[in-house]
Structure formats: C-alpha cells, structure tokens
Design goal:
Keywords: Signal. This protein is α+β, with helices and mostly antiparallel strands and 367 residues long. The chain contains eight helices and 20 strands. It has two domains: 213 residues, no CATH class; 138 residues, D-Maltodextrin-Binding Protein, domain 2 (3-Layer(aba) Sandwich). It is globular. The two termini are 21 Å apart.
Amino acid sequence: MISKKAIAFCATVGVTLSGIALAAPAHADPVSNSYSIVGSDTLEDVVSALANGTSITSSAIRSTVNGASIGSFDATGSPYITTKSSGVRFGRPNGSGDGVKALSRSIDGAAYTSGTAGSPVNVVITGQVDIARSSSAGTANANGELMYVPFGRDAIAYAYNGTATDISSLSGSEMKSLYECSVTTVNGVTVTPIIPQNGSGTRKDWLGKIGSSETAMRTVAEGGCVVEGQEHDATTLTTNSVMPMAVSRWIAMNTGASYDKRGTGTLGSMVAGTSPVTGTGTAMVPNATYYSDTTWGRDTYLVVEYARVNSASAKYDVNLAKLLDAAQGNSLTNSQTLITKAGAVKKKFGFLAPTTGVVAYRVAKTA
C-alpha cells in the first residue's frame, strides 16, 4: 500500500455544496456532463445521493465539479447504459467486479462485455467510465494502473426469512457448510442458501469471510444447493433461506434512505451476542463494535485510474482528483459527520469513516 500523499489534490478546484433545495432524483439513468460512476450495488444509493443531491441530513448536499454534475449508474435496471453525451451504449456493470472491469476497459480500450444478461457484447468503451464503486478491496500492486480510494466502513451480516427464528445467529463455520452444501439443516431447520450474482463484491467478501471459495461453493446450476440472486434484495427470501447482506444497505432500507427491499426478512448477526445495528426504523445506525470486527467489518472503495490522480502524470485530472479528496467537505470520499458534510450523508446510508490507517493504494487492472 502507498500513502494517501500519492494522490495529489489541488485546492483551487472545488467540489461544491448546492445551497438550494434538492428534489428527489429521477429513476431514469443520468447522462453525465463530467464524470461517470458504475459498479457496486452496495454503494450505488449513497453515491447516487451525493451525485444527484440530497437533503437527508436536513442540509442540501451535492457533489459537483466546477458546477458540472456527475452521473452514478445503478447496478441493475435496463441491460445497457450510455454514460456520456454522444457516447456508446454498453452493458450495465452489475457489481464491484464488473464495475472495475468496465473502468479497466475504459482505460485500455479493449472490448467490454458486461455480466448483465441481454447486454451488448464486445463494445469499445474508451473514456466512458471514470470511477468504479467497489465494496471489496483489491490486491495491492505498486505498479498497478488503478487506485483504490477509501470510501467508508461497512460490515457484512445476513438476512433470513422472518419465520426462521432458529437461524437468527449462525456462525461462519455453519454458513460455510451450508454454502458448500455439505449440510442442509441447522438447528433442525432446512436452510436454503442464496448468493449474489457473479461480479458482486459482497459475494466475493462473503465467501472469503466464511472460509469458502467459488470453487468450493456449489450453486444449483452446478448441481448444488446454492441459489443465485441479485444482491441485497431480501424480497427474494423464501421460507428458511439466508443471504449475505451489507449492513449499510439494511440500515438505509430502514431509515428510508434507500428503496425498501427487506420483504419479510430479518437481519441476522455473524458475531455472537453483537447486533450489527443499534436503534430501529429511521433511528437505526451502525453498531461500531460490529463494524470494527476484523472479520465481518470491511472498508469500501472508489476506484479510479491512478495516472489521472497523480500530479506527476501527463494524464493528471485536477477536477477528478478533487472529487476524491477526503479533506473536501462535499467530495465523494469525505467522512465528516457535520450535517453539511458528505460524511453525514454516508452515515444515514449506514457507513462509518474508513478504518484509521487505511489509505489509498494501487491495484492492477482487471483482465
């Protein structure tokens, strides 16, 4: 890893705060007149709130660059998106891995194919993606073309069907057995495990945290027991089923910050005796003890081309660098919790400040 100083930020170009009342964002995809952001479902609502403008903290906050709006594209929706004016139409990146892949193809000019069913294939998307949302960390590489910039602290728990009271607190080893299909019952209850779609950062983190892997997990398509579905959609829970859940998303669905996809689901804990959240309804907030757990807590990131935030590079983009400067009150990476700061918006969406000492670092492009 390298120091945050590797990202050179210029104090003369502003990420601004809008002083007017901001309407709720439209459901249609944006077309950016500056920077476009794709990727993680976990981060999509909070990043979109900052990009589109929100008054959720009772103070109008919006991240813009010199008055130009930025466009954040959801992980789900139509099979394709167009991110820039007169830009090409390409497959919608669904999840952290797919978003980082799209950013990589935007940098190197190789053809991109999204994991989204029905999307266009082998499309050249040079310059169409500027930032990728990622709920997962990358593998540090001192010569990597990408820069992972800390966004906020999240945690992973799981949602389960509300009638399945005997599966309200399962261990990592029990989850490993369920997702590898070596057992099908826990505490006398037959359990159906659900996993997010390929390319999901939550899928990657969940398997790693329970001590399993893509190879060891057995999906229904592979003759196993694990059902694949869209991450964070607890409306798909069937009787006695479980699915990994970003705690931030669960909080946002309770506070009204995000679209409510809880269905009849309940949030379970992976840390015995410790709830992932405190409070209920609109007063629900992260439980800092759960978030700080070294296994079940996780830091999330915004990913950008390293050269564009490195002042020594010919590709340096001072505006983009400013947008990712955590010292600026309304940048995408700010974590200050005053109601006029972007960090306060993040807390409403279930995020805490990144772990102390976690800094921006370089990662190789996705193949």
